[in-house]
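Q: What would this chain look like folded?
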Amino acid sequence: MASQSQILGVLGGGQLGRMLIQSAINYNQDIHILDPDPNAPCKDLCQKFTVGSLKDFDTVYAFGQDCDVITVEIESVNTEALMKLESEGKQVYPQPHILKLIQDKREQKQFYQQHAIPTAEFILTENKEEVIHNKSFLPAVNKLGKEGYDGRGVQVLRSEADLDNAFDAPGLLEKLIDFDKEIAVTVARNAAGELTVYPAVECAFHPTANLVEFLFAPADISEEVEEKAKEIAKDVILKLGMVGILAVEMFVTKEGEILVNEIAPRPHNSGHHTIEANFTSQFEQHLRSVMNWPLGSPDLRCPAAMINLLGEEGFTGPAIVEGQETALAEKGVYIHLYGKKLTKPFRKMGHVTVLDEDVTKLKAKAMKIKDLIKIKSN
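A: My prediction, written as structure tokens:
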């Protein structure tokens, strides 16, 4: 195992970095953080906090000088600076060329196509005019090639009446899939080539914010679909040749076909429940994989639900948490707040994990907690 004297640099100091640090503390692992927000959730928890742009070459390059291993908690970073650091002997995981590929949804989709990874049919478009020209392809999802995240940069175009919402920038049109379920499988791989895969989880999305609202583990799918999904996720990380943790989001169609939707080369919202529900959390696994330590068991200890705590609509300002004490009185309820002082509509402010051996009780408890805890402001 690598010595703890190695410094791990993380680009991004949000809640994912915060939860990564919480795992790293158990191993005396020093972490340096770069983030543009002087009040980022990680600022008081890391050994060194630097305020600066993740997209500026000089800033990222200078930050990397003090680190032995560099990783990310957000994809939107300067990959050229990371490539230079990598060429100078720094260990950068996930590798910069993979980050660059994933930053562009157009490149990502073409990668699936070229490597026989099942995905929805798509057309590349340069502008709004080209989307309109391909109106016969509707119903479809119009996605921006770059800079879209957390549901932003995605428009559902069901009919010609929706074409005015199309993006006037390079993007793609993806066939709208009439899916039965949305699932996610997390895989991790270290530099030694050890690979491990988590059980599939089932995601339910917020109807308007396009963010995961609920997550259930294990997913309510057949053993056959579960195994197929795991094999696809392993195939993706191996074909990428990636080191680190990778969340693979997929659709299960009504015919039982599995299609890869998108991937995230970092800890992801679909793995937050693993802190309490699995033998090794996704954050510890990310740490183990980028530091080239042995990987931990990904198995579930107990069925779990995860509820995202989003800022309530109509509230912007200093955050107030309602219903927390009542929720804490419930057995198997774990609240994670992300240290964000200000709330705004649909901002990710925290999450709650609920554990229960009985899946029916688990779902009922999760619904109850969702209605109980609200993030508002004065």
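The first strand starts at residue 8 and ends at 11.
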